Amino acid sequence: MAGEAKFREATTEKPLSRDDLIRFIRSVISNEQQEEADPFYVLDLGATRSLLNTWFHHLPMVQPFYAVKCNPNPAFLKELAALRTGFDCSSIAEIETILSLGVSPDRIVFANTCKPESHIKYAAKVGVNLTTFDSNCELEKIRKWHPESALLIRIKVPETTFEFGSKFGALPEEIVPLLRAAQEAKLQVVGVSFHVGNRAINSHAFEDAIEVAKTTFETAAQLGLPKMHILNIGGGFTSGPKFTETASAMKVAFQKHFPNEVLGNDGLRIMAEPGRFFASSSFTLAASIIGKRIRGEAKEYWINDGVWGSLSFLRHDQDEVNCTPLGIKKPICLEMKTWSSTVYGPTCDSNDIVLKGFELPELDVNDWLVFHDMGAYTSSRGNDFNGFKTSAIPTYFISKME
Q: Where is the Orn/DAP/Arg decarboxylase 2 N-terminal domain (predicted)?
């Protein structure tokens, strides 16, 4: 659960510049006088709007369904709802959250291939009528509790960077039996879903996956199923130049494998489930230095957030940390000497190490470290280990437009 949302006025038709962001963070620090300076997030809704514009500029034929699990911050979800995105939900709690924003059920895909029966019943009750499957067991649960739901068969495709292993997706030899089982159960399989892995940077992975999806469409037609009309290309997108490259490759693949559909002649609906694409650069984390130790030339610091909190992704992923030091009593400039530094989180876990061998100028207690691109799987995966409550970290969001 996200911490308290705190409003600050600013004009944000575009993302804040790095300098403006640092100034804003300084204003929060100076205005929120406390005995202990707690960590906080800044949510730049201008960045969110800009990212959506970028998405539709490069992939106008693909409707994004934001993956709620990536970051369920209420203010962020409310903005995405207002921008008319869809939502990828995986549980009752996520569906309830999205519906509470006034989002209609037809803007939700229940993208979990193995759902508890109670969750399927709930989806039926509230009218969430599009879900995924990749097993006979799931088909039987859906037949029993939500037979009116439209189905997407999730297929296993070549993956990149972060692999799902054997957990998700029907193997090639399982596709025909699953389609026949759905046909016999009188369930409507309306399309195909896949996911090439998080932070996908190999555009060929999407090209190959779209080809496999087209083969599945043809297989369903050969089996006599009603014509499929939804292609869900999953998530794994990152913003920046790689997205532009990937989008271009996907458009070529769409034209090659679904030429009539992409031209609008065959009613194909293409959807995606981006998470980090929208969340990552929309959020920035500020954490204060609570301790310091000098050992020879090495500097060691403790901050009030760590790998059991917002930086939990460091325990699983090898993301590069983008960090800016922020001096309070003395300004920091580019010409300052730096030292190889270690930054620890606040817990008593010896592995709570945020940075190691990271070049930093000498800092003091009550100075700050600002971590950029901190929206993806940060607050959503942190916990309250050792009593340091990730769930209580507040978010300051900038939401006024002129």
A: 50-279
- Report pLDDT digits (tens) over 130-159: 999 999 999 999 999 999 999 999 999 876
pTM here is 0.90
Is residue 111's pLDDT more than 70? yes
* Phi, psi of 155, rounded to the nearest 5 degrees: -110, 150
Beta carbons of 124 and 145 less than 8 angstroms apart: yes
Complete DSSP assignment for 209-259: HHHHHHHHHHHHHHTTPPPP-EEE------SSHHHHHHHHHHHHHHHHHSH
Please compute the mean of the pLDDT values over residues 239-246 and round it to a whole number: 84
Residue 168's alpha-carbon distances to 43, 224, 234, 317, 402, in angstroms, are: 32, 26, 12, 19, 45
Per-residue exposure over 93-103, b if at least 16 CB sit within 10 Å of its own CB, e if not: ebbebbbeeeb
Tens of pLDDT, residues 276-298:
999 999 999 999 999 999 988 88
Residues forming the active site: 348
Q: How far apart are the C-alpha atoms of 62 and 231, rounded to whole Å?
A: 9
Instruction: Give the position of tokens 């039987």.
Output: 140
Q: Measured between alpha carbons, how far is 100 from 82 in angstroms, rounded to an integer? A: 13
Residue 188 phi/psi, 5-degree rounding, is -95, 105
